[in-house]
Design brief:
heterodimer; A: about 210 residues; mainly alpha; about 75% helix; B: alpha/beta
Chain lengths: ~210, ~300
């Protein structure tokens, strides 16, 4: 055992224990650690954005180097602050409109191509998709299961007709696929949370207490 | 009190205590666990391994302290792989928070190699072998802009050097000079790289992600949009296994060391789920068989 003498390691370890103490019940140590985290994170973010975004990309070029074209983004950005003045608060729509227009224009073709068309292509029963499973002859079986799963799950979310007859059968199969999906997601979530716990315990046992390397 | 009542009313703090014990003990008393490498990680390893000599690897560091235990071992393993194979690396981040973590990973792994290097050729030299481009907001700008010119988007690197003066940046001008991009992320960035960089410029993309987002990202592997995929601590351990076996790099394997804790914790959770469900069904059967009042409640 080789306990750390670094005060920062101690602060970090004690904050970790304070946060974990919430598992017992809510208490002042947890609240202190929570507030310190929120305060530090926000303070760090504000100073970082000021020094790394606003100063080098806007204020320095505009006010120190005299590049007057930067007055346009400066004014558009300042319009966000009109939200706090009720008489002219409608002006905030201008920067919001510009941002939305840019992002929607950029994302619609990209999203529809990469996330919709490509994903639909992935469900087709083609030799290329069979091979994508890296499962030899079983690739055909997996592709058929995927195909059935997609059709049945989509039919479960079709609400314009009562779920009876063929639609009733496919939607009941669909809900099985949905539940398997939820189960897999839950399993992965457990794995993720346990991994984070392992990380903190490794820190407490290693750099802090020196029990392990 | 019957045993089934005791089992279904276990205090949550007892469960936490048991979990703490099964996670802690294997860390203090480690045991060797064999790690089976799965095809998604194998594909990612091969994709990096097969990057042509004249092309670079971009590593997008997009994890933060919250997801460090899952993603950081992936970053270390990939860096060791790339440095050993002398693959040129451009590192960047789409968020602010990961910058320090990315710098730490780059410096730590390059020092590992430099500590045993004999000549300049063996060494990992900043500007020649790798460049840390830093952060350029908002994410869409670098993703799209680097397809035209990387030095136009990142005029200076993380350390304030003019990028056009760095030797590596004279060889890597845009995505045409990039063999693969690996996004190590705890969020959406791997999807952005597919949507914008792959869709428009044909960039090959691989990913290392947290386990919690695995079910969201697996479909992109099946469609071939991802060249490979690492999921959570297990994925990192698989990559570490490959780096050790195929490249003979014997260093501390943080993710692999955690596999025993992860396995035992999963077993404990499975047992508690079984106990909870068994108790629930038994008590439900009892409630159904017992006579009820007109309000539907048991007498």
């Amino acid at each position: 055992m080789n306990i750390s003498t670094d005060p920062w390691v101690w602060i970090s370890a004690l904050c970790t224990i304070a946060i974990f103490s919430f598992l017992w019940r809510d208490n002042p140590f947890y609240k202190i650690a929570e507030h310190v985290f929120v305060g530090v994170a926000n303070g760090w973010a504000v100073t970082f954005y000021w020094h790394n975004v606003l100063m080098p990309t806007l204020f320095d070029p505009l006010f120190r180097q005299g590049q007057l074209l930067f007055i346009i983004p400066f004014i558009i950005g300042m319009l966000y602050l009109t939200r706090f003045i009720p008489r002219v608060s409608w002006l905030v729509r201008i920067p919001i409109g510009i941002s939305m227009g840019y992002y929607v224009g950029a994302s619609i073709p990209a999203v529809s191509q990469a996330l919709i068309i490509k994903q639909i292509q992935g469900t087709f029963l083609t030799p290329q998709n069979f091979q994508a499973w890296h499962a030899g002859n079983l690739g055909v079986v997996w592709s058929i299961i995927l195909f059935i799963g997609v059709i049945c799950t989509l039919s479960y979310f079709y609400f314009s007709r009562e779920h009876k007859g063929i639609l009733g059968t496919t939607s009941r199969i669909g809900i099985v696929f949905v539940m398997i999906g939820f189960g897999a997601a839950f399993g992965y979530t457990v794995m993720a949370r346990i991994s984070l716990l392992i990380g903190r315990i490794q820190y407490l046992l290693g750099p802090w207490l020196g029990i392990v390397d | 009190m019957k045993i089934i009542d005791i089992l279904t009313k276990i205090d949550r703090r007892v469960i936490y205590l048991i979990l703490f014990a099964v996670v802690t003990l294997p860390i203090i008393f480690p045991s060797a666990k064999s790690i089976r490498v799965m095809p998604p990680v194998e594909k990612l390893y091969d994709a990096i391994d097969n990057i042509p000599e004249d092309k670079a690897l971009i590593i997008d560091f997009d994890y933060d302290p919250q997801t460090l235990p899952e993603i950081e071992p992936m970053a270390f393993a990939i860096l060791r792989h790339a440095f050993r194979k002398r693959i040129k690396i451009l590192a960047l981040s789409l968020y602010v928070q990961p910058l320090g973590l990315a710098q730490n990973a780059l410096i730590s792994v390059s020092e590992e190699f430099n500590s045993v290097a004999v000549t300049s050729e063996d060494s990992i030299i900043y500007g020649r072998d790798y460049v840390f481009l830093g952060w350029q907001p908002p994410p869409l700008i670098p993703i799209l802009g680097m397809g035209e010119s990387i030095v136009n988007v990142y005029k200076t690197d993380y350390y304030g050097n003019q990028t056009d003066t760095l030797p590596l940046m004279k060889e890597v001008k845009n995505y045409a000079d990039v063999g693969l991009l690996v996004s190590l992320s705890s969020g959406d960035p791997p999807k952005w790289w597919i949507e914008y960089a792959q869709n428009r410029f044909g960039l090959k993309v691989g990913a290392g992600i947290t386990a919690v987002s695995a079910s969201e990202f697996y479909p992109y592997l099946q469609t071939g949009q991802f060249s490979g995929l690492m999921v959570g601590m297990k994925g990192a351990a698989e990559y570490e296994e490959q780096v050790e076996n195929k490249l003979n790099i014997k260093v501390r394997r943080k993710a692999s060391e955690s596999m025993s804790s992860l396995t035992y914790a999963h077993l404990v959770i499975i047992i508690f789920i079984l106990i909870g469900n068994t108790g629930y069904f038994i008590s439900r059967r009892k409630t159904k068989s017992s006579p009820t009042t007109p309000t539907g409640r048991p007498r």
